[in-house]
Write a structure and sequence with these properties.
Length: 186
């Protein structure tokens, strides 16, 4: 489910809303929140994996947590870390925490992220999921004007099928998609 493009905020208004976020690696509550993605993802990662925190925001924290766990990190954020060169690299894993609901072109962006994953790489996404149409009508998450597309279990299953990926939901708002290595014909 998504919002019509003519209802999107201007980029300036959108950024001004994000500028009010007070997320910081020094905030234990924010770290606890991010641990819902960090903990299950980190269990899959080999030591010293190379990752990208896509949509790192004004106070990158998940990337810091992953660096503290021994991984090499790059960050990208359209407003706060807009270095497109990091999008041209291949990664062992990519995180998108509370980001996909903001994407104006979700198919294009998710495909770009998926193509940047190495074989056996993991795309870790954290976003609240739609339960059903009735619940959506009363859902606070849709009231954030920067949230323009919404995902369900069925959306993630469709993506996994489309990409030929393995899919797991280790937490209620977390999806991990594993990029399977292509089989070599002998």
């Amino acid at each position: 489910m998504f919002i019509a493009a003519q209802q999107f905020l201007s980029l300036e208004k959108e950024k001004s809303m994000y500028d009010h976020h007070k997320n910081s690696p020094d905030d234990p509550h924010y770290r606890d929140f991010l641990s819902r993605l960090f903990t299950p993802l980190n269990q899959y990662l080999s030591p010293q994996s190379h990752g990208l925190d896509f949509g790192s925001g004004p106070g990158p924290t998940l990337s810091v947590m992953l660096e503290e766990a021994g991984h090499q990190m790059n960050i990208y954020d359209i407003f706060y870390a807009p270095d497109n060169k990091v999008l041209e690299q291949d990664y062992d894993f990519i995180t998108a925490s509370e980001v996909v609901e903001h994407l104006h072109r979700p198919a294009e962006e998710l495909e770009r992220l998926w193509s940047s994953l190495k074989p056996n790489g993991i795309l870790g996404i954290m976003t609240k999921r739609i339960i059903n149409r009735e619940a959506f009508a009363h859902w606070h998450y849709k009231n954030d004007l920067t949230h323009v597309c919404f995902f369900s279990i069925e959306t993630f299953q469709w993506l996994a099928d489309y990409w030929g990926a393995s899919l797991s939901f280790p937490e209620k708002d977390v999806a991990l998609l594993l990029k399977k290595a292509k089989k070599v014909k002998s």
